[in-house]
Specification:
Elements: H1 2-13, H2 22-30, E1 35-38, H3 45-55, E2 59-63, H4 67-79, E3 84-87, H5 93-104, E4 110-113, H6 115-118, H7 121-128, E5 132-137, H8 159-163, E6 169-173, H9 178-188, E7 194-197, E8 205-211, H10 215-226, E9 231-235, H11 239-251, E10 255-259, H12 265-277, E11 281-285, E12 298-303, H13 310-317, E13 327-333, H14 335-346, H15 352-370, H16 375-382, H17 395-398, E14 403-405, H18 407-419, H19 426-434, H20 439-443, H21 460-472, E15 476-478, E16 486-488, H22 493-496, E17 503-505, H23 526-546, H24 550-553, H25 556-565, H26 570-574, H27 581-620, H28 625-632, H29 636-648, H30 654-657, H31 662-679, H32 684-689, H33 696-708
Length: 717
């Protein structure tokens, strides 16, 4: 059976080889076994159930929380020639009836269904009357009560084991530490399932975290320097900030769209559709956006606020670079982010156990932000996958972080919090440390404290950095139902007593741009880049005709192979990755025709370049224009064009070609300047103004010289 799977892999999806551990997963499901699959985003999880669905008899039922994306997923499968449908609450009665008819008649290979719809008695009864190939539970981490994407309805999916014994089940996720994996297996009844843990590393993503200082301006600088025309996602914590940031980016000239749960459902669908189907769209969103987004060419994910956990950060940044090409995970955060998240946590209605777990998760996220060693090592260690060597592709690897002995400053900060009664926020404490006799300080008599004015060696921003890092490391905490009130924790005692020391990051106000990367597009020469853009334009035209996202036609990686290999036949194109038989039949002719036309145009240009060089060489050897024309079998006018090109390239001077005295040349140049100012670069107005005294070829050479040097500064002297 695995040979059949391998055949379909090439025939339908256009790939020659499986990735690890796809083959083992597929073999397990074909044989009727259960599986838990943890693979990084973009690692090919979907193939693990799509191929068994095509091989095993019956329909595969895919459980997905992503109602808004089901239609896109079904459309993408239809492009591969796979019969798929979906059932969810967004469908009208007639649409649902049609899908149910297809299901009962055995016409579907895959059926996507929301967990709420699946667990309805009517749906379960209908499925019991069908032959089922398998159940695929996507985004399986949603079953975990400790996870960042918990969905209560997922808890009921264990019912599938009892209701459909003997039907293999596969649970899939990109985000699950050991605790979450155990919970998935327990709650879904998958204790006996084979576990495939591929790993969490996304080596193509460059992780970068900086200190927040005028966050929108920092984002703008990052976008302009590195992603001016790319698609990307910008995450914000609040709905208001999403809308403000989207509007501001629009004012800066970017195609930015907002997305959050408070927007009208139709507007959310519209913006999501635009993001998926158009290029160069920035989606500014809360965490409500992103799960299941399969757009492969998202080149960056930016965070303007601190995520609540490492799991959330990994899941959100994992939406970049799903095509395997280089991508950025960029974030800025500050003390206010820490205070805000602490307040949210402590004031929540969760029980003490949940609060304790969430505190640990937030502390781990803060630790990732404040480390001075390799970020990828810390990130992977969190998921139980230590990386033996620094990655060389994160900010701390590319530019090591300077540190300073902050022991004395930290003690001053902690003492000031204590002396102020542990009843004030960071701004007031900094006022005391700096010795600022504000009305509030005077009113509270805090100018009489021993800590008043003892911190003048640091400025306000430096003190905010100290407090941010003290909170991040657990020396200070934030009161829950307060306006950011700081209080000491037990962890600070050894530091205050002088029993330990502390080093801190030295914040940089300027964030570096890292442009040295291995984007395939950046390696293209001018000729290849022209073809790359032409292929992308054709893909966009076809995607609009089909009303599908461009990546559904072909991924960027496939277009890049077209550029590199220049296929001219169906057989040659079929060898490229990502081009199965259906897509070759559907789109092959259009892309082959474009490549052939481009090749022909380039050849013509090349031939012309050779002719120009030959004409210039012959003329420089002593031949006249007439003699060169006879030698090249071309008209004298064409030879003059060639010589004008030679002048523009600096291979000839104007004096080598045009025999005019200075007065004559000055007259022609003056009239040419006047005509260009009023009529553009056309030569006929110049020819007419000079009463046809000079041939077009001569005028063309003079114009070429004027364009090469400043008007009036002729190389003729």
């Amino acid at each position: 059976m695995i040979e059949k799977a391998r055949q379909l892999l090439k025939q339908i999806f256009g790939y020659d080889h499986f990735r690890e551990p796809q083959q083992d997963v597929i073999e397990t499901l074909i044989a009727g076994g259960d599986a838990l699959v943890v693979m990084p985003t973009g690692g090919g999880k979907s193939l693990c159930y799509q191929l068994p669905a095509l091989i095993r008899p019956g329909v595969a039922v895919v459980v997905s929380p992503l109602i808004a994306l089901m239609q896109d997923q079904v459309q993408a499968l239809s492009q591969w020639g796979i019969a798929a449908g979906y059932l969810n609450s967004s469908m009208d009665f007639s649409m649902a009836q049609e899908v149910e008819h297809q299901l009962r008649s055995g016409e579907l290979d895959l059926l996507y269904v929301a967990p709420e719809r699946l667990l309805q008695p009517r749906t379960l009864k209908m499925l019991s009357e069908c032959q089922l190939a398998l159940f695929a539970i996507d985004e399986a981490h949603c079953v975990s009560q400790w996870g960042h994407d918990f969905r209560p309805e997922y808890l009921q999916l264990s019912y599938l084991q009892d209701c459909f014994p003997g039907v293999p089940r596969i649970a899939l996720t990109a985000t699950a530490d050991e605790r979450t994996r155990e919970e998935i297996c327990e709650r879904l009844g998958l204790q006996a399932a084979r576990k495939f843990i591929q790993g969490f590393d996304r080596p193509n993503i460059r992780y970068r975290i900086g200190q927040k200082h005028r966050a929108k301006e920092q984002l703008l600088k990052f976008l302009k320097a590195e992603h001016a025309s790319d698609s990307g996602i910008v995450y914000c914590l609040s709905r208001k900030k999403v809308e403000d940031t989207a509007q501001w980016l629009q004012e800066q000239g970017f195609n930015a769209l907002p997305y959050h749960a408070g927007l009208h459902a139709e507007l959310r669908r519209h913006n999501q559709h635009r993001f998926l189907t158009e290029e160069n769209i920035l989606m500014v969103a809360t965490v409500a956006f992103g799960m299941g987004i399969d757009k492969p060419n998202v080149r960056f994910v930016a965070h303007l606020d601190l995520p609540k956990s490492v799991e959330a950060y990994y899941q959100e940044t994992g939406r970049a670079g799903r095509d395997g090409l280089p991508a950025d995970a960029w974030m800025v955060y500050g003390l206010q982010d820490v205070i805000f998240l602490r307040q949210m946590l402590e004031s929540s209605q969760a029980d003490d156990l949940h609060k304790s777990i969430e505190r640990q998760k937030l502390e781990a996220m803060l630790g990732l932000c404040e480390i001075t060693s390799c970020r990828r090592q810390t990130l992977l260690t969190y998921f139980g996958e230590p990386l033996p060597e620094p990655c060389g592709n994160c900010d701390t690897c590319l530019e090591p972080v300077p540190v300073w002995d902050a022991t004395e400053s930290a003690r001053k900060a902690l003492s000031a919090v204590y002396r102020c009664g542990q009843r004030f926020g960071v701004n007031h404490i900094i006022e005391v440390l700096l010795g600022k006799a504000s009305d509030r300080v005077l009113e509270l008599k805090h100018h009489q404290l021993s800590t008043f004015g003892i911190g003048k060696e640091l400025d306000r921003n430096q003190w905010r950095s100290v407090f941010r890092q003290l909170v991040a490391r657990g020396y200070l905490s934030v009161a829950g139902n307060s306006h950011g009130v700081l209080y000491l924790t037990d962890s600070c005692r050894p530091l205050l007593k002088g029993e330990t020391q502390i080093e801190m990051r030295q914040d940089k106000r300027k964030q570096e741009s890292f442009r040295k990367r291995n984007d395939p597009q950046q390696k293209l020469d001018a000729e290849d880049f022209g073809l790359w853009n032409a292929l992308k334009s054709l893909r966009m035209e076809l995607s609009k005709e089909q009303d599908v996202p461009p990546y559904v036609i072909f991924h960027d990686a496939t277009l890049m192979e077209m550029v590199m290999y220049r296929p001219l036949t169906h057989q040659q194109m079929g060898r490229l990755n990502g081009i199965g038989e259906r897509k070759l039949e559907q789109y092959g002719d259009a892309f082959l025709e474009l490549i052939r036309e481009y090749q022909s145009e380039q050849q013509q240009t090349h031939n012309k370049d050779l002719q120009v060089q030959e004409s210039v060489t012959l003329y420089r050897s002593g031949m006249t224009v007439a003699q060169v024309a006879r030698q090249q079998h071309l008209s004298e006018n064409v030879i003059y064009n060639h010589l004008a090109d030679g002048i523009a390239e600096g291979q000839l001077s104007l004096a080598d070609v045009v025999m005019l005295n200075s007065d004559q040349l000055q007259q022609v140049q003056q009239i040419m300047c006047e005509c260009m100012a009023s009529c553009g670069v056309a030569l006929k107005p110049v020819y007419d103004a000079l009463d046809g005294l000079y041939e077009y070829g001569v005028l063309r050479c003079i114009r070429a010289d004027m364009e090469r040097v400043e008007p009036g500064a002729s190389s003729n002297g």
